[in-house]
Amino acid sequence: MRGIILAGGSGTRLYPITMGISKQLLPVYDKPMIYYPLTTLMMAGIRDIQVITTAHDAPGFHRLLGDGRHFGVNISYATQGRPEGLAQAFVIGAEHIGNDSVGLVLGDNIFYGPGLGTSLSRFQSVSGGAIFAYWVANPSAYGVVDFGADGIAVSLEENRPPRSRIMRCRGCTSTTTT
């Protein structure tokens, strides 16, 4: 399985600090925010990772992460001209993905909890796609996923009036070409 960290966007809700540095390079406690999704992919056993970011922010990620060698992973980079939704990550990363399965996580998401590594490693054998999500009281502030009666996701919505209260955690995996 290969990994993609989507670290684009302009972080407008954090202006003015994000005018000078990518949101994903800002510190969260004692490390840059991007270390958290990188660690999430590593806990899932993923060692071949592509960081997708803007041309403006790419040099900062290169300086921080390099080729990934010092993390025990292989990191490559791709640039995103302008954000056009999560599915764009699969288009930009198509060459990186090849015929493999892929795990996608956003560069500003922090996953934490007991058994997380075990949960993540189970995605290695999922047929089709899987998504992390949980119920929230204020779904209009998030992208949401709507599930059918059979528990299968039927839609992902961003910046629209939601049809459910289950927030999409902005991380997913796929074993099929998207």
TrEMBL record:
Limits of the Nucleotidyl transferase domain: 3-158
Enzyme class, spelled out: transferase
Assigned keywords, A-Z: Magnesium, Metal-binding, Nucleotidyltransferase, Transferase
Catalytic activity: dTTP + alpha-D-glucose 1-phosphate + H(+) = dTDP-alpha-D-glucose + diphosphate
SUPFAM superfamilies: Nucleotide-diphospho-sugar transferases
Pfam families referenced in this protein's UniProt entry, alphabetically: NTP_transferase
Cofactor dependence: Mg(2+)
Gene Ontology molecular function terms on file: glucose-1-phosphate thymidylyltransferase activity; metal ion binding
InterPro entries reported for this sequence: G1P_thy_trans_s (IPR005907), NTP_transferase_dom (IPR005835), Nucleotide-diphossugar_trans (IPR029044)
Domain of life: Bacteria
Enzyme Commission number(s): 2.7.7.24
Family: Belongs to the glucose-1-phosphate thymidylyltransferase family.
Protein name from the UniProt record: Glucose-1-phosphate thymidylyltransferase
